[in-house]
Amino acid sequence: MIYQVDHEKQAVSIQNIENEHMYIGMMTLDELKDCHHYFGISQRSIRRCEETSSLNQNIIIPHNTYYYGLINLINARDVFVKKDSLAFFIFKNLFLVVVLDDEDKHISEVFQSSSDYVLERGVSITRLVYYFLSELISKDYEYIEELQEEIEELESQDDEEKSLTFTNSLRQLNKELLLLRTYYDNLVIIGEELQMNHHHVFEEDDMRYFEIFTRRIERFADNVQMLRELLNQANEAHQSKLDYKLNKTMQFFTVVTTIFMPLTLIAGWYGMNFTNMPELRAPYGYITVIGVSIIVVVSLVFWFKKKKFF
Q: Can you tell me the distance from the alpha carbon of 155 to that of 143, in angstroms, rounded to the nearest whole number?
C-alpha cells in the first residue's frame, strides 16, 4: 500500500507516484520484488533484504538516490522471543517500509499511527522517518523500567540457600541486557548515519529530528548499561555473602583444629608406650592427663573467646 500524505492520507497506485508529492508506503518483500523497478531499487538491495532478513542485526546503507536499512526489533520485555523485522527505503519523497516478519502486527500498527501523526504535525520525509522509528521504540522505556524492578526484586530475594537459582537468574538477565545494549548501539549507528544526510535526501531544517532520535537511543543504551552495573553490584554482594559464610566456616574449623591439636600431641606422646615413662605407672597419671587436657581445652576456648574468633 502506498499513501500520498501531502495534506491528507490518500491511497495511490505505484504508477501514479510523482516527484512533487510526499509518500509513505508499506509492502511485503514479495511485493517489492515485483515492483522494485518502479522505485529504482537495485537488485543488490533486494538480495540484501533476502540475505540479512534472517540475521540478528540492524544496518543502514546509503545508495545513490536512497537509503536502505534493516531493523530486527527486540522486545525489551523479553529479548529472546521471535523478533519482528523490517527493511526500509528512504527517498526524497518516499519512505517505504518492507515487512519481513510481523506476526504480532506491531510494525503495521506503527506504520498507521506514525503516518496519521505526521499529518497533524506537518509532512516532510525527515518527519515521516523520525516518527516511524520513534514509534517502533516508544514502549522501550517502560520495558527497561520493568527490567530494573525485576533486578531490584531479585536483589531482595537473595538467599544463600538458593544460591544456584539466584546466580542463574543473574546470568540470564545479564545476557538480556548485553543483547539490549548491542541492539541500541546499532540503532545509534543508524541515527548517526541518517544525520550524515548522504546525497541530501533530507531537508537540512529538519535534521534535528534525527539528533533527537539518536540522543533518545543513547539514553536507552545508558539506562541498559546502568542496569548491567546494578546487576554486577548484586552479583558482587551475593558473592560477598557466600565468601563471608565460607570464611566463617573455615574459621570455625581452624579454631576446632587448634583446640584439639595439643590433645593430639598429648595422646601421641603417651601413646608411644616407652618403658621408662613414669606417668604410665603413677596411680594418678591417668587422671592427671585428663585434667591437663581439660585445662588446655578450657584455656584455648577462653583465649579464642577473648580474641573474638567466635
A: 19
DSSP state of 82: P
pLDDT above 70 covers a percentage of the chain that reads 92
Q: Are residues 119 and 210 in the same domain?
A: yes
Residue at 257 is within a domain: no
Percent of the chain with pLDDT over 90: 23
Is 11:3 a contact under the CB 8 Å cutoff?
A: yes
Residue 17 domain flag: yes
Quick one: 180 and 287 in the same domain? no
Q: At what angle do helices 163-196 and 140-156 cross, to 10 degrees?
A: 160
Across 28-42, b (16+ Cβ under 10 Å) vs e yields ebeebeeebeebebb
Distance CA 181, CA 294 (A): 64
Number of domains in the chain: 2
What pTM was estimated for this model as a whole?
0.76
Could you tell me if residue 224 is inside a domain?
yes
Q: What is the domain range of residue 102?
A: 2-242
Give mean pLDDT, residues 277-299: 80
Same structural domain, 190 and 296: no
User: Residues 240-287: pLDDT tens digits?
Assistant: 887 778 888 888 888 888 888 888 888 887 777 666 777 667 777 778
Q: Is residue 195 over pLDDT 60? A: yes
The values of phi and psi at residue 96, to 5°, are -110, 125
Residue type, 156: S
Bridge partner residues of 3 (DSSP) = 11, 24
Three cell numbers written together for 276? 621408662
Q: Do 16 and 144 lie in a common domain? A: yes
Stretch 110-135: mean pLDDT: 83
* H or E stretch covering 89: strand 85-90
Pairing outcome for strands 67-72 and 59-62: antiparallel
